[in-house]
Amino acid sequence: MSTVNAELFGKDPKIQKAISVARNVSVTKAPVLIVGEVGVGKKTLGVYVHQNSNRSGQPLVIVDCASEAQTVENEILGHRDDESGRFNRGALEAANTGTVIFANIDCLDEDFQKRLHKILTELEDYDIDVRIIATTTKNLSKLVGAGRFYRGLYTLVSNNSITLSPLRERIHDLEMLARHFATNFIESDDVSIDTNAMDKILSHYWTHNVAELKSVIENSLKNSETACLNELDLEVGEKKAVSMLSEEENEGIRLMSLKEAEKLLIKKALMHTSENRTQAAKILGVSIRTLRNKINEYRTEGSAYFVNLR
């Protein structure tokens, strides 16, 4: 895993404060909760904490808690393969002496939240020593108050909380990152972004933050015939789809049934729009009524994310 460059988080005072807190807490073994919108760099900051700790040479395992409930449980605790009978170690055992990042911890199945809390408090009994980092787009305190997140688990992970502010609130960082992604993608200092294109970048509401900006810049440069990105080249706006899945997730979809892939795409669309159903429906190319029916269908099936969807 490549070393995280802290300068690329930005120079905004709020971001600098967040990096300072991350750097200070990294030297401890205390759990860390990183809060922020989709695509703002929460997992990257978690990696930064690990890389600046005395565990940096030890394993780092990332678990996406937004995956299907049984899959998440298997990834964390381990499971026996049905065909071979071989036991696959879970994240807690695999990351012993290192760090586990629970991404989207708010998506954990509610029953499993209590079980996981009990396991985490008893790790020493199993000679397992892991540092816990969690990320969320939600206000976990409110979820606790609403009875949707286990208070014990919240208390365990939230003693050191770091908030990353959205990119649209950091104009200077937005411009810096746009130029960085452009030169990094082309691997040349000659690439540039003209004034009109930059104005469009600075005025756009970046719902998916850094992840969306990176995708837009790279997709625009792929279709640009010059080394100077202009306003016409810039593929930004509702009509332009932003890739919401990583290569690993795309790879996973090929191994799923069509129904499972559909559910995952709907979940990702909702997460990337902070559960704005109108925006999610536009991204998916379906009517709001169709999306509502699908959500109700998944709720009936007992899918944890959709059951807890507001």
Task: Give the helix/strand layout.
Layout: H1 13-26, E1 32-35, H2 42-51, E2 60-64, H3 69-77, E3 78-80, E4 87-89, H4 91-94, E5 99-103, H5 110-121, E6 131-136, H6 140-145, H7 151-157, E7 161-163, H8 171-186, E8 192-193, H9 195-203, H10 209-222, E9 228-229, H11 247-253, H12 258-272, H13 277-284, H14 288-301, H15 304-307
Parallel strand pairs: 1-6, 1-7, 2-5, 5-6, 8-9
Antiparallel strand pairs: 3-4
Helix pairs in contact: 1-2, 8-10, 12-13, 13-14
CATH architecture designation of the largest domain: 3-Layer(aba) Sandwich
Gross geometry: globular
What's the pLDDT, averaged over the residues? 88
Estimate percent helicity. Answer: 40-55%
How would a crystallographer describe the biggest sheet? Answer: 5 strands, parallel
Q: Give the number of domains.
A: 3
CATH H level of the largest domain: which superfamily?
A: P-loop containing nucleotide triphosphate hydrolases
Structural class: alpha/beta
Approximately how much beta-strand content do the residues carry? Answer: 5-15%
Give me the number of helical elements.
15
Number of strands: 9
Helix/strand order, N-terminal first: HEHEHEEHEHEHHEHEHHEHHHHH
Poorly predicted runs = 238-255
Termini distance?
36 Å
Strand order of the largest sheet: 2-5-6-1-7
What is the level 1 CATH name of the largest domain? Alpha Beta
Q: What would you note in describing this structure?
A:
This protein is an alpha/beta fold and 310 residues long. The protein has 3 domains: 6-163, Rossmann fold (3-Layer(aba) Sandwich); 167-229, Helicase, Ruva Protein, domain 3 (Orthogonal Bundle), CATH 1.10.8.60; 255-307, Homeodomain-like (Arc Repressor Mutant, subunit A, Orthogonal Bundle), CATH 1.10.10. Helix content is 48%, strand content 11%. It contains 15 helices and 9 strands. It has helices at residues 13-26, 42-51, 69-77, 91-94, 110-121, 140-145, 151-157, 171-186, 195-203, 209-222, 247-253, 258-272, 277-284, 288-301, 304-307, and strands at 32-35, 60-64, 78-80, 87-89, 99-103, 131-136, 161-163, 192-193, 228-229. The strands form 3 sheets. A 5-stranded parallel beta sheet has the order 2-5-6-1-7, sandwiched between helices. Strand 3 and strand 4 (87-89) form a beta hairpin. Helix 1 packs across helix 2 and helix 12 (258-272) crosses helix 13 (277-284). The longest helix has 16 residues, at 171-186. The model is unreliable at 238-255 (pLDDT under 50).
